[in-house]
Amino acid sequence: MKKVFRFVIIAVLAIGVIGTFIFLWKKSQPKVIKYEVVEVTQGKIEKKTVATGKVEPRNEILIKPQLSGIISELYKEAGDVVKAGDVIAKIKLIPDMVTLNSAESRVVRAQLAFDQTNNNFERDKKLFQEKVISREEFEKSQLQYHNDKAELKAAQDNLSLTRDGITGDKTLLSNTLVRSTINGTILDIPVKVGNSVIQSNNFNDGTTIASIANMNDMLFVGKLDETEVGRIKQGMPMEITIGAIQDVRLNAVLEYIAPKGVESNGAIMFDMKAAVKVPDDVFIRAGYSANAEIIFNRAEQILIVPESCLEFSQDTTFVHVLKTEEPQTFEKKQVVTGLSDGINIEIKSGLKLKDKIRGAEIIEKKPAAVN
Question: Of 55, 125, 150, 234, which has the maximum CB count within 10 A?
Answer without folding.
Answer: 55
